[in-house]
Amino acid sequence: MTQWVENPAGGRDRGPQAIVRAWVEVMVRPRRFFNVGVAPGDQAPGLVFGVLVTLIEVSSRIAFGGVSVGDSLLSKLFALIVVGLFIAPAALHLTAALQTVILMALVPDRGGISETVQVIGYAVAPCLLAGLPFPKVRAACTLYGAILLAVGTSEVHDTSLVRAAVVTAIPSALVFGYGFRGFDAFATVFPSLAGVVPW
């Protein structure tokens, strides 16, 4: 089910430059990116991309005091290792499994779970900046991430954008609303939403 092939046809290149290029492309030209950058059975680049974005977001939160993991450098490194090796990959795969179940019900002719993992992994690209101590920035990042997830799902699974938005509503709430604290950011930016946002 999971292949890490050397030169996947239609998949992403490996290496730091490829990761930076993928970030720029998915941020600027998401439709084209999801059309050419997601390949069946080649989920490794998308998984690595999503984990790296999450690590940078968590590192920013630690650096700016948004999350407390202890004062020592060792405790901070340990927290990042746990996030990078366990929490982020597990969260991505569990969310992909949930979205696949929803896709099965609403999109009969769809891509596989590998493509779904890649779409979620690349959709978190804006959250690279979500760890900064600015609620407006975090709100914008998480909103754009949710939009990217819908767009990517529409392109990769060949369905309408409206149906993709329905399919990705719950995964987006979990990943961007709770995982990257989008709900909290929107409640801070728009106090009138404080009683409406699901906590």
TrEMBL record:
UniProt-listed Pfam families: Yip1 (PF04893)
Domain of life where this protein originates: Archaea
Transmembrane parts of this sequence: 77-107
Membrane topology field: Multi-pass membrane protein
One Gene Ontology term, aspect cellular component: membrane
Domain Yip1: 25-176
Name of the molecule in the record: Yip1 domain-containing protein
Origin species: Haladaptatus litoreus
